[in-house]
Each structure stands twice: as C-alpha cells, then as structure tokens.
Amino acid sequence: MIPTVVLLAAGMSTRYGRLKQLEPVGPGGEALLDYAVYDARRAGFSRVLLIIREELEEVFRAHLKGRWPADLEVVFHHQRIDDLPGVDPTLRTPHSPAAVLANREKPWGTAHALLTARAQLPGPFVVLNADDFYGESAFLKAAEFLRGSDRGEVPTFGLVTYALEDSLSDHGGVSRGICRVNSQGWLEGVQEVLEIRRVDESILGRTVPGQGLELNGTEPISTNFWIFTPDVFPLLEAGFVEFFRAHVELPSLQPDAQPDSQPGAQPDAPPEFLIPTEVNRAIGQGVARVRGIPTLDRFLGITHPEDRTWVERGLEEMTKEGRYPSPLWA
C-alpha cells in the first residue's frame, strides 16, 4: 500500500500573524509545504493528505493548482472542532459536549487532527508540520523505515530527530520537544521545553512548570516528523476520550480553570490534544514503541515574523548548491 504524507496545516498561526503555511519563502515563491511534497516525491511518496480548516480549502487549492504534479494524489481533510471521536454525546460531568464546544474556538491539537482523518489513512503514513522544512534525508529515512521489518509485539512507530542547535531561531525563543533516546535507539519520551534561545555562549530554556534548563545544543529534538501505521488510531481514540472527559469535568469552562499540564500551554490557553503527549503516554504504558531516527539535514521553520529572512536565505543557499531547482516544478 502506498504510504501517505500527512501535512498538518490547520494551525491558526497566532504568533506569526498570518497564514504561514502558504508564506512564499522559496526563490520561486514556494511555500515550505511545497518543499515537503517535493522531497517526499523524491523519496517515493505519491499521496498527500492535507489537514486544514474548512474555510481554508479554497486558498490551499488555489496555491497548489498548476504547481504540484498532476499525478500526485492530493486529499483534503477538514479538522472540525465538533468532531469528537469516541466521545459519548450524552456525557454530563458536569458539562455536555455541546456546552464545551460552545466555548471552544481553537482546534483541539495535532493528535486530534490526525485522529479525525483516520478514515483517509488505511495504510502507513508520515505526519509533519506544513510550515516547517525537513530536508530530503528525513523523507528517505522515513521511507526506509516503512520498508523495514523492525516490528515487535506492540505497535512500532518512528520519529525523525534533529540536533537542537540546528533548529534555533535568532529572533526569539522557540519550543522544542527534547527527546530521550536510549542506547538501542528507542525513544523513551519527549519533554517539551519552552523559550529556548541562545544567551551569550549558552542555550537556555524552561520546562512547562517553569524550571530553567541549560542545554548543550546536541540534544535530539522532535519537530513533529512522525512515522505511523493505522495501529496508532486505537491509542489516540482512547487518549482523546480520556482527555475530553478531563476537560468537561472541570468545574468551570473559563480559561483560568484549564489544566496547565499541556506542553507549551500558556496560562490562558485552552488545552490541546497533542501527538507528543500521546506518544509519551503510549511508551509509558508499554503499548507502543518508537524508533528515534536521527538526521543531519538542515531544519528550517517559521515561529516569529523575523524568521522569514532566515528561511528565505537557507532555501536560496540550497538552491544555489543545486539541491533544489527553482521553480521546484517547471
């Protein structure tokens, strides 16, 4: 079965201020998701699933029309706030799902986006952010992993990792998932670290509870490039039911009553159902294992508006080196 590239593109780009998923940063006006699709094609992927908000489909279709190869299968899936997989609609503890939805504007998070798209994913797939640049090596290694026989008694997945120092912004702090990988190459967990930045000769960050950390830059990090099979969906559904029940059991739906245990959450931010959190849960419960797959490729991403120049410069350099044509598809 042909593996699928899943592009997470339903984010609201709050910090960036506009739709960074389609920001023209390549020498030929390409967006970062164009590079992801180009590299995926070179690695043998020929099917793309775009997870977006429904109101954005027209603008995404306009972007890729005449740009992506005609023989590439492209599927759109809408992440809807009212899509609650596995949740009993009559739940009353103390708020009904309808009451929760009435107070929710932001999508439920990356793991929810993936879970709601499961009908479109009958076979193996990779899932990544549409607004990050991962490089050809990541897709080649993902394709190799999917062809392999590294399977066990529990579902086996993969995570492409990068070195922390290669992913930092010069324009402000970033959040990164710091990975613990054992000597056999298996992921033991992902810790979200916030506001990571260079300070003089050091790299500093803080944990979600607020503890300061000093990092050395060589730590493997997750940038949300996951390799899954459909075995992940029962795990996600069970996790979402638990997550949603905890949410509706809050005594109030006001922001100051939201749990603060979500990675990267701000005090007034609604909780999100995130892939790293659920992977940590599955690993901890022994119901899944994840192979860490390091790559030395360059990582580029836009967090702050000032990052655009950094990304543009990096793509221009790689184009001049002959790693990418301009435009990507003549």
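[next item in queue]
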Amino acid sequence: MSDHYFTQAPTSRQKPAELRVDIGGRAFVFAVDTGVFSRTSLDEGSRLLIETAGPLNGQCLDLGCGWGAVGIALAAFNPEARFILSDINRRAADLARINIERNHITNARAVESDGFDALAGAFDHIFSNPPIRAGKKVIYGLFDAAHNRLLPGGTLAIVIRRQQGAESALKHLSMLFGNARVKARDKGYWVIESYKGA
C-alpha cells in the first residue's frame, strides 16, 4: 500500500517545496513535502477552520497538524494563547517545527504523537482537520480522546466535507458532547464545534 498522510514514517521520495500563503491579511511561508496532506496549497477546509476560530486563550492543540497551517496561523493571531501542533506523521511534525521557526511563532511547538499518546495535560481548545483516509474508526477515536482531554468549558472544532461524512460526524459529536453545531459552511466544508460541559 502506498503512503498517505496518516502514515507514521512516510517512505515516499521527498520533494521539498515552499508555499506562500495569505491568511487573514498576513503572509506566511511554509515548507511542504510529499507524504504530508495538501502539499500544493492551503486546503480550503483548513482555511475555513482558521477563519472561523475567533479569539483564543489558554492551551490549544492542532490535532493532526500536517505542515502546520492551522496551528501556526492561530498562534500568530492569538499571541496570548499557547499552542501544540501534533501529528502521527514524522515528516509532518518535522515540517511543522520548521514552519514555526520560519514564521517566527514563539507561542507554539510541534510534537510527533499518535493521537494523544505523546501529549500531556488537558486543553482549552482543540482543532482538527481530521485524516479522512484513516477511516471513521480512527477519526471517531480521535474525537472521543479529544473529549476526554478537554478542560470543562473547552471546545473541539473540526472541519470535514459534507460528502466525506460531515453529517455523521455532527451526529457523533452531538451524542459524545451532548451538543454540536455547524459553525460555518463553505465550498462543501462544514466546521463543527462542540463544547465540554462542567
């Protein structure tokens, strides 16, 4: 089976490149490579997740960060918050570290982690553009783990395309958290947010 972006140690031949992206009126420069999600452009779902996040504080997590667009942009716009960017994909985590430095982000760090295995503590906000190709069992397992690692009053925000399971994800999160709302819709993408009660 060929590599995909949920592979822990991609074996695909590396083809490093540079991607310049404007997000919220700010210019970012990202190192990208093969074996990592959305190598050629900023994914529209990730952009929507960033643009609808709103002000943040506390401890935040970009779960399945890829090369780091979501966590880095949100960290740049919320300097008082603290961010961890995590990914099971070693190549992605390495790129996220490079991109944190390249964009002069001082309130974020990147960690290689299978889900929450290498992550300590709890979080105020968790963001994820989940790895659809990993399958529903893996994705819902990440949602369940995120619920367990959120502080009371904390939020989980995900982005998922309607045709790739947004409606069933909304139902799962509603049952898991007791609440879920579609925060935004654009170009077939849904941003779904749930909060953890006291």
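[queue empty]
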